[in-house]
Amino acid sequence: MFTRIGKFTVRRRRGVLVASALFVVTAAALGATVFGRLSSGGFADPSSESERAVTALKETFGTGSPNLVLLVDAAPADATAGSPKVDAPSAQAEAERLTDRLRARPEVLEVASYWSLGKVAPLRSDTGATALIVVRTSGKEGGVEQAQAVADSVVGRHGPLTVHAAGQGPVFHAVSTTIQDDLAKAESIAIPLTILLLVVVFGGLVAAGLPLIVGVTAVFGTFLTLWVITLFTDVSIFSINLVTALGLGLAVDYSLFIVSRFREEVASGRDPDAAVVRTVETAGRTVAVSALTVAVSLSALLVFPLYFLRSFAYAGIGVTVVSAAASLLTLPALLAVTGRRIDSLRLGRRRTRSAARSLESGFWHRTATFVMRHPVVVGGSIVGVLIVLGAPFLRVDFGTPDERVLPADNPTRIQTTRLSTEFTSHEASSFPVVAQRAAGGDAAIGATAASISSLPNVGRVDASTGRYIDGRLVIGPDPSLAGYVATGAARFNVVPTVEPVSDAGQRLVSDIRSGRYPVGDVLVGGRAASLVDTKASIVDRLPWAIAIIVLATFVLLFLMFGSVLVPLKAIVLNVLSLSATFGAMVWIFQDGHLSGFLGFTPTGLTDTTTPILMFCIAFGLSMDYEVFLLSRIKEEHDRTGDNTASVAAGLEKTGRIVTAAAALLAITFIATGTSDVTFIKLFGLGLALAVVMDATLVRAGLVPAFMRLAGEANWWAPAPLRRIHDRFGFSESDGPDQHDRGTDGPHDPTDDRADPDDPGKRERVTVSG
To answer: Is residue 662 very low, low, confident or very high in pLDDT (cuts 50, 70, 90)?
Structure first.
């Protein structure tokens, strides 16, 4: 198959390039519109109890949790002596006009304020200078855009009042806006540095430009893919960060490997067309297997019900497939057109040394040789370092993002923080409890509200029968509570005394859910309940995701190398490396070390979904480098039969390429890590650390040490599995060269009719060992 692909790209080079250009133009035109179709939610399991509570509130009671909180500051001079500033007549009159104005907006479903509810104390700040207006708007995904539109229409000065926006809607909008700005900033950092490093790595302007063409194709192609997917399901806006970072990174990875192999084939004596075909047969096959491995790792995210996670699977699989396709079609066509001119506009003089001398005196050859002389000491030391780095992950404490993921000077964060610092009551943190089949009438409703209010960390419970504190009715029913009961159903509003996203908040959810109430079974909603349900959903499906990654990776690597031990080694070393990365991230972001230098606010929590994302992405990228390295080691082993020499030679042949690829990929992730949003910063810097750690400690240390200790067992497989590999396996090393090098007479690499029955001309599978 890869021989045919290589011949096709050589024979139809201009047609392939024209088709590629048309694809990029079309993808850019349609894909550019994808940003307006992306969503900012997706952090909850739609089938969870907390989401069912939200649905019940909407369908049964026609209400829901407020998504916009307006803080209304009264001017100091407007207060009468001894009265709260917000109770001044002019302040009250202006607040009532403001409330009426809000009710008139079509996207506003509900409005309640300190004044409209009869000056209830919990909606007034401790100083009396500020009061709250809570608003619920229509719209998908919590009505984020609608809430922000309403906020924009009223924020500012209104006579004696000054209005500020806070709450879930403005926070999510601020996060989305910040991420879009950060994306442009990351690209402005990553692209110039990538171009500069590409010129240094490739040593010339022409060669350095090829990966950029593949990268542009991959990014725009994935935007088009996401645009199509948004026609059928929701896609998270946060996945765009992965498209740009991974698209450019994989394009560079695959281009480095293919261009380097092309140069190697030309230097060995092949004419450029034959070199392109041979490159696709060998390096192209490795790129295809590598891309398949990355895509499989990312596909594990599809088992999770949170479309935030699923969106990264859509984006990651899309960018990987398009990168591989561009590397196997567009790039070989470019190489066929460029030919020997790939080294034109070269910077500096090219050093010429004999292949043998270069191989044995190279840095990576010497490194591998040193490690294999002391495999136990070097390997044991690195394992010890990785275990120490990974230890902090044992104390990970998961949470969900809140306003603290924004910069400290962000206006939305400042105003939302005021809700917890200036108000004794946690009204903005209240959450619903719904009894869909309420039994027993008012007596049962009152008994249920009293029971919930007596639980630890509950400040107050509102029900249709009144307001309850510490198990007692303190205020009787009023008109504002009339909507708390419907035909056959009842709802309760629970005001906690603790932060929802905390251990205490999660215990409160568990306490309420474990209780038995006169009204019957209840559903608990709110942020704390959503966090509990999200964690349970992830834990429930995590074994399936891990099984998919491990099994698929083992099968792919076995088919590639015909070994049982090599895939197991790769999986174990990758898990060890990633655990060290996670430990470092907990130490930095959860514990707050380096928070001043990196510019974020530590919360003592780690975002629930980020480690899952990092694991799937980093595992795939680690296998990406593993395939590149092992393919050359296997090729050398098939040629020489010497395990130790093949490891040193394979590391030398791929060391510079993989190091450059890792550096370039790390740059794109570090650029992403400059984001002002904490969990995006964690995502970018964590993946950058994972890539660097894998390309140094694992590839240069653990792999040679392990393969030296295992010896020829590296390439062993039981007889039944060996027969499977003989029949279905694929390998980069195809034994004897399949094409002339240009010294034995003319040869047409695109001639499909040449020697169809000659085993040397057929694509075949190499039996390892």
So the answer is: confident
Task: Give the closest residue to 493 by CA, choosing from 438, 429, 443.
Answer: 429
pLDDT value, residue 238 = 82
Counting Cβ atoms within 10 Å, is residue 631 exposed (0-12), middle (13-18) or buried (19+)?
buried
How would you write 223-260 as a 3-class SS string? HHHHHHHCCCCCCEHHHHHHHHHHHHHHHHHHHHHHHH
pLDDT tens column, 305-325: 999 899 999 999 999 999 999
The burial class, CB within 10 Å (0-12 / 13-18 / 19+), for 753 is: exposed
Q: What is the DSSP letter of 394?
A: G
CB atoms within 10 A of CB 187: 18
Per-residue pLDDT, 747? 42
Q: Which two tokens stand for residue 326?
A: 């561009």
Beta bridge partners of 486: 489
- Please name the amino acid found at residue 118: G
In contact, 57 and 434? CB cutoff 8 Å: yes
> Is the pLDDT score of 245 beyond 70?
yes
DSSP letter string, 92-114: HHHHHHHHHHHHTSTTEEEEEET
Q: Amino acid letter at 639?
A: R
Nearest partner of 225 among 210, 213, 211, 242, judged by Cα: 242
CB contact at 8 A, 697 and 577? yes
In the numeric block, which tokens belong to residue 195? 């171009």
Both tokens of 622, joined, read: 């680690």
Q: Give dist(CA 415, CA 430) in Å, integer.
A: 18
Q: Tell me phi and psi for residue 593, to 5 degrees.
A: -65, 140
Contact by Cβ (8 Å): 565, 714: yes
- With beta carbons less than 8 A apart as the criterion, state whether 10 and 277 touch: yes
Dig out the tokens for 12 from the structure: 């139809």
Of the segments 70-84, 88-102, 201-215, which one has the largest average pLDDT value? 88-102
| Torsion, Cα of 175, 177, 180, 181 (10° steps) | -110
Query: How far apart are the C-alpha atoms of 328 and 279, rounded to whole Å?
Result: 10
| 8 Å CB contact between 226 and 33 | no
Domains and CATH numbers, the chain: 2-41+173-398+532-722 (1.20.1640.10), 67-166 (3.30.70.1320), 417-531 (3.30.70)
Joined together, the tokens standing for residue 42 give: 């997706």
The candidate with the shortest Cα–Cα distance to 639, out of 359, 406, 377, 425, is 359
Please list, residue by residue across 380-398, b when 16 or more beta carbons sit within 10 angstroms of its beta carbon and e when fewer do.
Answer: eebbeebeebbebbeeeeb
Q: What is the mean pLDDT of residues 676-704?
A: 91
Rounded Cα–Cα distance for residues 217 and 98 (Å) = 51
Query: What CA–CA distance (Å, rounded) separates 216 from 224?
Result: 12
List the structure tokens of 665: 């990929």
Neighbours of 59 (CB within 10 A): 11
Residue 133: predicted pLDDT: 93
CA distance 219 to 73: 47
Q: DSSP label at 201?
A: H
Q: Which residues of 323-333 are buried (b: 16+ CB within 10 A; e: fewer)?
A: bbbbbbbbbbb
Phi, psi (deg, nearest 5) at residue 621: -65, -35
* Cβ neighbours of 252 (radius 10 Å): 29
Pick 412 or 339 by higher pLDDT. Answer: 412
Contact 691, 662 (CB under 8 A): yes
Q: Which residue has the tokens 């409209």?
A: 116
- Does residue 540 or residue 198 have the better pLDDT? 540
Which helix (H) or strand (E) segment is 466 a member of?
Answer: strand 466-469
* Residue 500 structure tokens: 């929802």
Nearest to 328 by CA among 273, 296, 286: 286
- What whole-number distance in Å separates Cα of residue 330 and Cα of residue 323? 10
Question: Which two three-digit tokens encode residue 695?
Answer: 């390309």
Distance between CA atoms of 280 and 258, rounded to whole angstroms?
A: 8
Confidence of residue 593 (pLDDT cuts 50, 70, 90): very high
